[in-house]
Design goal:
alpha+beta; 4-stranded mixed β-sheet; 13 strands; 34% helix; disordered C terminus
Length: 286
């Protein structure tokens, strides 16, 4: 595909219409995601296309990075084009045309020409299982820049704003599992390190509330790292403080991209009849 200034080899077959799938190179507008067969049509389209950002609400901006929320019902064609392009880089993706039950969060890089597509994730508007992410894709030309974990962190920020815990749709792909395990470890370790300076004992429910992760995902992370041990008839979190400090320090040395929650401008798509109680750090210990 040719998108923006990049020409990218696709990884998997996407179900574009036959007249397009026969062409060795597809041209995709980086703003409206319309796909075309010829360079002439693409050049003419780029001269006429008035869209300079995804057709939704900009809910987050930090420097040159922005995230837009796009409703699959209100912007059906854009979201269908997005899913067709996403299938080129996602082996397990099966959603192409039924986009109305989903919200899409588009990550863009901003410059004087507009908001350039870098990646996205989607989630169901009403998820019975409590999933906060259905699929995630970063363009190969934008990978290795920390955008994947940035969107994962963003999905958990929205879950915390909703007052619920969230988890990605299962089963995860191999790459997805690696990314999530790395993020979960960092999120749990940062909470344990922060709270450990104030309290000697921490509950799994407290870690879940602070991170936005489900209890099952917190337990899985602690078990994988050998920090959940059986003591009699119950289990206990056994923290290796030196190991956690070393991991967090190494993670910070890489200067990863992080979400600044103060720059989010967003309200939940669905409101719940619940009261969210603000807790201070002292309430998370027992």
């Amino acid at each position: 595909i040719r998108i923006g200034s990049y020409e990218i080899d696709s990884w998997y077959i996407s179900p574009y219409p036959d007249e397009y799938s026969r062409h060795p190179l597809l041209y995709i507008c980086e703003f409206c995601l319309k796909y075309m067969k010829s360079s002439y049509t693409y050049t003419r389209h780029c001269q006429k296309c008035t869209l300079r950002h995804p057709p939704g609400d900009e809910i987050y901006r930090d420097g040159s990075i922005s995230v837009f929320e796009v409703d699959g019902r209100k912007n059906k064609i854009y979201c269908q084009n997005l899913c067709l392009m996403g299938k080129m880089f996602l082996d397990t993706k099966t959603l192409y045309y039924d986009v109305e039950p989903f919200l899409f969060y588009i990550l863009c890089e901003y410059d004087a020409r507009g908001y350039h597509f870098a990646g996205y994730y989607s989630k169901e508007k009403r998820s019975v299982q409590g999933y906060n992410l259905s699929c995630i894709m970063i363009l190969p030309s934008k990978q290795r820049e920390g955008y994947g974990k940035l969107l994962i962190e963003f999905s958990y920020l929205l879950s915390k704003k909703e007052g619920v815990s969230g988890s990605p749709e299962k089963p995860l792909s191999d790459f997805g599992l690696l990314s999530y395990r790395s993020y979960w470890r960092r999120a749990v370790y940062e909470i344990l390190l922060h709270v450990g300076e104030r309290a000697r004992v921490v509950t799994i429910d407290a870690v879940s509330r602070k991170t936005g992760m489900t209890v099952d995902d917190v337990i899985s992370t602690l078990q994988t790292d050998g920090m959940l041990q059986r003591k009699g008839v119950s289990y206990a979190i056994v923290v290796d403080k030196a190991r956690i400090e070393r991991f967090v320090e190494l993670a910070r040395e890489k200067a990863p991209r992080r979400i600044d929650s103060s720059k989010l401008r967003w309200a939940p798509f669905l409101t719940k009849n619940t009261t969210v109680v603000q807790e201070d750090d002292g309430d998370i210990s027992v």
